[in-house]
Design brief:
6 strands, single chain, 2 helices, two-stranded antiparallel ribbon, four-stranded antiparallel sheet
Length: about 130
């Protein structure tokens, strides 16, 4: 279970050099603040989790059920709704922003990603 979570989008790759002129590959990630939309507790929902959204989207681009969910929480509509299981749901409040400042320098993190998916490429690709 996570204690904190952030959401980011991969921008690209680059490289850095250390003091011994060794090349270190670096992934550049754009992190926009995530806003807590819903806090799920074990008493009410059976498990502890937070539901967050990131980025901004025009209200007309969101369907009615999601629009009602965002309005009930008092949060501006975002690109996507994501849910993270946490140890203690009481530490979070609806509308709270989670930014990159929750991580300290040198912190080890777990990364989860979704691949683009190329479908069936066929013989010519191979």
């Amino acid at each position: 279970m996570a204690t904190t979570a952030i959401v980011g989008e991969k921008v690209g790759m680059t490289q850095l050099w250390d003091d011994q002129n060794n090349v270190i590959p670096v992934t550049v990630v754009k992190v926009s603040p995530a806003r807590v939309v819903q806090v799920k507790t074990p008493e009410r929902d059976g498990y502890a989790a937070i539901q967050v959204t990131f980025g901004t989207v025009k209200a007309s681009r969101v369907n009615k059920p999601e629009s009602g969910h965002f309005n009930a929480a008092g949060v501006a509509p975002g690109k996507e709704l994501l849910e993270f299981r946490v140890d203690d749901a009481g530490a979070w409040t609806v509308g709270q922003e989670i930014g990159v400042d929750v991580l300290a320098d040198g912190t080890l993190i777990d990364v989860t990603a979704v691949s683009k998916g190329k479908g069936f490429a066929g013989v010519m690709k191979r």
